[in-house]
Amino acid sequence: MSLVQAVKRQICRFEMVPNFPIGPLAAWAEERGHHPAAMLEAVSQIRQQLEAELEALQRHGHSSAAVLIQHEYWCFYVDQVREYYWSFVSI
Hints:
Elements: H1 3-11, H2 23-31, H3 36-60, H4 65-89
Helix pairs in contact: 1-3, 3-4
């Protein structure tokens, strides 16, 4: 499994709720020795994937509001995670 796939599995979970902390994901990445730059690249790729999926769901028209909201939240969370790792890489 690639890093992108592994991180996406950590992010795209239905138990995600607003204000879900970044700490568990950061700890997961650190325990596995994933460098912040690699995590930044992975979450950037995941954001692109999620955006494309969300656009497809919106075009489909038969997606439930709950599915759309969940995808929007995953996009929001990825943005937060990306900013977190950007702070390490940009130092």
